[in-house]
Amino acid sequence: MKKFSFKGGFHIHGSNAKKALTTKSQIIIPKDPDYLYLPLNQQLGRPSIPVVEIGDQVKVGQLIATKDGNFSANIHASVSGTIEHIDYMINEPSGQLSKSIVIKNDFNNLEVDYITRTTEEAMKLTPKNIVDIMEEAGLVGLGGATFPTPVKYSGTKKCNTVILNGIECEPYNTADYTIMKNHCKEVIRGLKYMMIASGASKGFICIEDNKMDVYETFRQALSGDTDILVALFKEKYPQGAEKQLISALFNKEVPYCGLPIDIGIIVNNVGTAKSLCDAVELGKPLTHHYLTITGNIKNPSNYYVPIGILFQDLLEDDDLKRNKVLLAGGLMMGKAMYTEMTPVTKGINAIILLEDLPQVGQELTCVRCSSCVDNCPAFLSPTTLTQLVKNNRYDDLDEYGIVACIECGTCSYVCPSHIPLLDYIRHGKLELRRR
Ligand code: SF4
Ligand code: SF4
Questions:
Q1: 397 CA to middle of ligand 2, Å?
Q2: Measured between alpha carbons, how far apart are the two ends of the chain, in Å?
Q3: Cβ atoms of 280 and 130 closer than 8 Å
Q4: What is the distance in A from the centroid of ligand 2 to the CA of 93?
């Protein structure tokens, strides 16, 4: 059985044991909270613009903020109730204080009238119809990048292949696994709608070899389908990064500062495909999604949550007291939160509570072992970039390809001298952006 892989990266020790905390758990639907906090800043582009006012009554699925420009996205109410605030009330998971729409839940769960379609009707939609649905539904990449989905399908460049990313290489996260396990058919139909929208003739569903059960489920579901193939990948971090995925599958490179569409490829997360299927067939915008809540807690599980629910409404007090570290997103690429008064946004697919972070030794001198260079999946020289940053040579960073760094943290992880290479590189990127 062929298994794909990319050059660089590393195997995270104990990753499967961490995933095993939640792979067999039931999906939990939490009690609806009294208040929902929906930041206007949930996507890569500009914050969305509110279309409701304080005091308005809203229903589940109702548009409450509209996109502001191409890289922005619509936002919809995830509970029914009253708009109580539109203000800078709360930090969203990136740490930024974000203007948010606060809905007071009336617990009536009133929904807007959704426009539904049979699969047969949906398969006859035009590419423009589907891109319009993506836009209306407020779809963004649910793998964490929050790149607005319709932008990928704008048709400015020819697409021949759509790849669905079901790799999920973060050690604790199993939300994508849960989607693939429970919604195989919707994920496949979502991919078919993406292929119609892009004009692509080929689709791939990419799964790591630590999820053989879902790999087999998809292979069986697609037996006889010659347009969509299921590809198996060796478990390695960061296999889920889109450029590494493309490199492993096709042995092709996305150009420096370019996008996969520059070589005729679109990559989307499996969760985005499921959400597109819901939008096309059920008429439902993106109001809920799957989330792994795990770590040093009593009941690690996968949840299906309304977007805008606070971490506080999902976590047990005892678990919070027992742990010092609260991570949003993932152990490797997620961010540490200083408060549980943070809302779940479209891009958050895991919340992890840990007693502490792994202790890193004191930073020593570089011993020129080349481990960071050998393992960098973006083929960079992290040690050189770090030296440039340390010597304030910011203007030279571009020449050494700093923009290609995907911030996977592999270099810091493998460095025997405990040099926080990624921290230096992030600082260099920030300094470059400021200039
Ligand atoms: S330089 Fe960037 S891409 Fe390369 S290993 Fe370090 S964090 Fe990952
Ligand atoms: S891994 Fe660390 S010690 Fe080795 S070359 Fe890179 S920076 Fe130097």
A1: 18
A2: 50
A3: yes
A4: 31
Helix (H, G, I), strand (E, B) or coil at 176: helix
Please identify, by atom number, the ligand 1 atom nearest to the C-alpha of residue 406.
3
Residue in this structure with the two tokens 């891109």, named with its chain if needed = 131
Question: Where do the structural domains in the chain lie, given as residue ranges?
Answer: 1-27+113-358, 371-434
Q: Cα-Cα-Cα-Cα dihedral of 343, 348, 349, 353, to 10°?
A: -60
> Residue 68: exposed, middle, or buried by beta-carbon count in 10 A (0-12, 13-18, 19+)?
middle
Residues with CB under 6 A from ligand 1: 376-378, 380, 382, 405-411, 421-422, 425
Residue 430 beta carbon below 6 angstroms from any ligand 2 atom: no
Q: Is the dihedral of CA 221, 223, 227, 233 positive or negative?
A: positive
Q: Measured between alpha carbons, how far is 161 from 263 in angstroms, rounded to an integer?
A: 10
Q: Which two tokens stand for residue 422?
A: 């990624």
Substitution candidate for ligand 1 out of 7, 244, 380 with most atoms within 8 A of CB = 380
SS3 annotation, 366-408:
CCCCCHHHHHCCCCCCHHHHHHHHHCCCHHHCCCCCHHHCCCC
**pTM greater than the 0.90 cutoff:** yes
Q: What is the pLDDT of residue 359?
A: 78
Dump pLDDT digits (tens) for 109-129: 999 999 999 999 999 999 999
Q: Which CATH architecture has domain 1-27+113-358?
A: 3-Layer(aba) Sandwich (3.40)
Q: Whose CA is nearest to atom 1 of ligand 2?
A: 415
